[in-house]
Design goal:
By secondary structure, this protein is of the alpha/beta class. Helices cover about 20% and strands about 25% of the residues. It contains 7 helices and 12 strands. The radius of gyration is 19 Å and the shape is globular.
Length: about 260
């Protein structure tokens, strides 16, 4: 007997592959709230908005120049809100290192000895709720490689905005992904799907190893849904060895208990 291959909803036939796969494997799934952490110029959130016009999408980009371009790119998409914040394990201050609008701009945290949580008023300001809105972000000089940014824990942002359910949490923060996931804490339980970028060989020192995500998200009640975007090692002239991938995880409440299945 040949089993029929699950198909996505017809209206999602041209959607990004991960959305098509979710639609096919979880029939009738309703994408309502999406968080794109590390949105850069909108490469991910724009196709998502085109495919899911009823979804509310928050696109987070802390780098000043990238954020300015992101704002312009999403201006005609009322379902997308561009937010000039970084996400992390806690609410604090950090810095972005890199150049211009590069997709490999990275977040740099202060040493643990000087890491302090923002006061409540500072958090409100970072989230745009204090008088005068969020603090202005100065445009860095053309040759600058570092810019101070506000970092907010995902749990704090969700509580502030009254977000009680997240359909899809996409994280692409150049090695900071696990810290972003940890910043949701118990509120990971309101997330249905999580996508991160993970290392697939031990010599990749940029990204967090896939096994770490399997452990942390597994403990939070997620199963591995599917792996996307696998890339070969390119450093040192390149090697026929997997370097990184974009695994997607699904919460067990959408799946049921896997124990005893053989």
């Amino acid at each position: 007997m040949v089993r029929a291959v699950p198909q996505p909803a017809p209206e999602l036939a041209q959607a990004p592959r991960v959305i098509r796969d979710i639609s096919a494997r979880v029939p009738g799934y309703d994408f309502r709230t999406i968080l794109d952490v590390g949105a850069n110029l909108g490469q991910s959130c724009l196709p998502l908005a085109e495919a899911l016009p009823r979804a509310r999408i928050y696109a987070f980009e802390p780098a000043a120049r990238s954020f300015a371009v992101l704002q312009a790119n999403v201006a005609d998409h009322p379902g997308i809100e561009a937010v000039n914040l970084a996400f992390g394990a806690r609410t604090e201050r950090g810095a972005m290192t890199g150049r211009g609008t590069s997709v490999v701009n990275r977040l740099t945290l202060p040493p643990p000895s000087v890491q302090t949580s923002l006061a409540r008023t500072s958090l409100a300001q970072a989230l745009g709720r204090a008088p005068g809105g969020p603090p202005p972000v100065p445009e860095p000089p053309r040759r600058a490689r570092q810019q101070e940014v506000e970092i907010v824990a995902g749990a704090d942002f969700c509580r502030d905005r009254g977000i009680d359910h997240i359909s899809f949490l996409k994280v692409d923060t150049e090695g900071h992904d696990l810290e972003v996931v940890r910043g949701f804490g118990p509120l990971l339980q309101i997330v249905d799907f999580v996508q991160v970028e993970a290392a697939t060989n031990e010599y990749n020192e940029t990204h967090v190893p896939l096994r770490d995500f399997l452990t942390v998200l597994g403990q939070a009640g997620f199963y591995l849904f599917r792996i996307y975007g696998e890339a070969f090692e390119f450093k040192g002239g390149g090697r026929p060895v997997s370097r990184r991938c974009n695994p997607v995880f699904i919460h067990r409440r959408l799946v049921g208990d896997m124990e005893g299945i053989s």
